[in-house]
Specification:
- The protein is α+β, with helices and mostly antiparallel strands.
- It has one domain: L,D-transpeptidase catalytic domain-like (Beta Barrel), CATH 2.40.440.10.
- It has three helices and twelve strands, in the order αβββββββαββββαβ.
- The longest helix is centred in the first third of the chain and has 14 residues.
- The protein starts with a helix and ends in a 7-residue tail after the last strand.
- 28% of the residues are buried.
- It holds the Pfam family YkuD.
Length: 204
């Protein structure tokens, strides 16, 4: 890339207030003995790649805000900033909104399909005992379990190996993130962190 083009790109980033995207953050990595595959960034819209942006909010720093209409998750930062991640959200009637807190965090969790999911897809019965952690586990590298009034809502913010689902309505209600991004998010928040899922502007 020519020097002039690089300078123009950096000026554009400075004017927008966004931090430049570091592609190396999405390469293949080894995490707790498990391999996280590289993400083909040339096949994902730049807006869904993790970046810090200007973001005015009435919620305090440390709050997780999910905007399902635009497929974004924001982690509110001090001084009018936020870290923005691309997400996949619930399809059709599986979308939800409201407030919760992170009640539990888990690295490379086992996945057990809920009874209603097994009822919709009987072939999932083979996983009633749980699917162990690994590259094909639907919960990915991290899971943040959302609680409300001290009870598990059964909704999660979790990783996914299905990078192509980011920016789309593909899940059964949970908030999916790239595995690299959910590892980053989990390292920044703790149990008790508030979560706000905004209502959708329309059914997507």
């Amino acid at each position: 890339m020519k020097l002039q083009a690089v300078l123009m790109m950096l000026v554009g980033v400075w004017q927008s207030g966004c931090t430049p995207v570091d592609a190396s953050r999405y390469g293949q990595v080894l995490d707790a003995g498990y391999t996280v595959s590289a993400v083909p960034l040339n096949q994902i819209s730049r807006e869904y790649v993790r970046q810090e942006i200007p973001y005015q909010s009435s919620y305090p720093p440390g709050t997780i805000i999910v905007d399902p209409s635009n497929y974004f998750l924001y982690l509110v930062q001090p001084r009018g900033r936020a870290i923005r991640y691309g997400v996949s959200v619930g399809k059709g009637a599986f979308g939800w909104s409201g407030r919760a807190v992170v009640g539990r965090e888990a690295a490379w969790p086992k996945w057990t399909p809920p009874a209603e999911m097994v009822e919709r897809s009987p072939d999932l019965r083979r996983y009633r005992g749980g699917l162990k952690a690994g590259a094909v586990n639907p919960l990915g590298a991290r899971a943040l379990y959302l609680f409300k009034n001290g009870r598990d809502t059964l909704y999660r913010i979790h990783g996914t190996p299905e990078w192509w689902s980011i920016g789309r309505s593909e899940s059964s209600g949970c908030i999916r993130m790239l595995n690299h991004d959910v590892i980053d998010l989990a390292a920044r928040v703790s149990v008790g962190a508030p979560v706000v899922v905004l209502p959708r502007k329309s059914i997507l």
